[in-house]
Amino acid sequence: MKKILVPVDFSKECRYALEVAEGIARKSNAQLLLVHVIETPGQFYASDERFVQKMESEKQYRAQLSEYFSEKMKEISAEGRPGDVEMELSIEMGSAFPCLDQAAMKNKVDLVVMGSKGIGGMRELLLGSIAQRMIRFSNVPVITVRDSTDIEHIKHVVFATNLKPTPHYVTSEIRTLVQALGAKLHLLHVNTRHAWKSHREINNLIRDFAEQHNIKDYTAETYDDNTVLDGILHYAEDRETDMIALMTHGRTEYSRLVSGSISEQVASLATRPVWTCAFDHDQLKWYNKE
Q1: What does DSSP assign to residue 129?
Q2: Integer distance in angstroms from the first to the last C-alpha of the chain?
């Protein structure tokens, strides 16, 4: 892991995410890329007098916004930090998700760590928060953080899986993270009444899954619950899990509205950090041919 992107919006959740990203960077000797996106500035910042007074042009307006937020970026990057993690600051203008996605690809980042406030309201249900869009469409794994987290206390990471064919790049990414954290990996299958299996059968499936993905050091976990979502959240609470990990399937807005995404719901509801890695259909086709 060489570079970690942290979207910056100056919220408390953003600061929590930066703490986690710094901890991971320190353990893996990675660089941080802090990105702030100025999105339709006339709409969101027009009430700030320092920007609306004596503006001669949109170009000048944007230049002053960029200067202002560059100073704020420097402040947040220096807040009580020892300076042993290399940081790069970037200001982008445009729509948040495309800018973040392009920054991730352009800078070849290995991980995105971002704050999340959870889901609320019809607008977010239809349009999706920035965190939701990153979870659904990002080309690299995403960790969402809602509360202050001491990275040194992340000792148990649970990877929830349905044990169906999974691209090797997903399990490779989670192994890389667990190794960087020095944590223990737990492979979890939630057993529901609609898709019930005996615990013996599940343990055998988990063993086969681990062998296919070259996962050596792990514990097999089965949890019975009404739904997969409930099972993941309840397991995390009951077993004092420090981080939840899942593979997520990219969805259209309409299909998500109808059937939802377990990964996005877990990320919005869990108080623990949630790691997600987006499903790649081309990768899975390749995997199935092996």
Answers
A1: -
A2: 27
Q: Are 168 and 213 in contact (CB under 8 A)?
A: yes
- Is residue 155 domain-shared with residue 139, that is, in the same domain? no
Cα distances (angstroms) measured from residue 80 to each of 8, 77, 84, 134, 275: 17, 9, 12, 28, 26
Looking at the fold, whether 125 and 185 belong to one and the same domain comes out as no
* Tens digit of pLDDT at every position of the chain (290 positions): 899 999 998 888 989 999 999 999 999 999 999 999 887 545 444 445 555 554 555 566 667 667 777 777 777 767 656 567 888 888 888 888 999 999 999 999 999 999 987 554 433 433 347 888 888 889 899 999 999 999 999 999 999 999 988 999 999 999 999 999 999 999 999 999 999 999 999 999 999 999 999 999 999 999 999 999 999 999 999 998 999 999 987 544 433 433 347 888 898 899 999 999 987 645 444 334 34
Q: List beta partners, residue 118.
A: none
Q: What backbone phi and psi angles, to 5 degrees, belong to 87? A: -125, 140
Q: What is the rounded CA–CA span in Å between residue 84 and residue 86? A: 7
Domain count, the chain: 2
My answer on whether 215 and 163 are in the same domain is yes
Same domain, yes or no: 57 and 141: yes
Which pTM value belongs to this model?
0.83
Distance CA 200, CA 255 (A): 34
Q: 173 is in which domain, residue-wise?
A: 151-289
CA distance 159 to 187: 5
| Residues sharing a CB contact under 8 Å with residue 98, sequence separation 6 or more, in sequence order | none
Q: Are 185 and 136 within one domain?
A: no
Domain final residue pick, 145, 166, 189: 145
CB 72 within 8 A of CB 38: no
CATH number (domain holding residue 112): 3.40.50.620
